[in-house]
Amino acid sequence: MAWLVLVISxxxxxxxxxALDRSAGFSRLGPSVVFAVTLALSMAGxxxxxxxIPVGTGYAVWVGIGAVGTALIGMLALGExxxxxxxxxLLLVVAGVIGLKIFH
Length: 104
What we know:
By secondary structure, the protein is mostly helical. α1 runs antiparallel to α2 and α3 packs antiparallel against α4. The radius of gyration is 14 Å and the shape is flat. It starts with a helix and ends with a helix. The model has no long low-confidence stretch (mean pLDDT 96).
């Protein structure tokens, strides 16, 4: 259960990062509210998962999921560069996250 919560929390990290960008420095109410709610849920899920998963592994997986998810949304929906080197670097992050889970 802790791993499932950790993955969901990582996905929520992606949501709050995108909402933070869309909030335009907290000047837009809707994205600012989405940011606050998803941030709180993401942190709460991380805290829950860390009761069973070591902090180094849990935090690295959480950040990796959030970073890859945010970068993918940036590339697929927000017009950011989707160059081959960027994609290869994201694949390295994914490989690292998988490796942390396997060797947990």
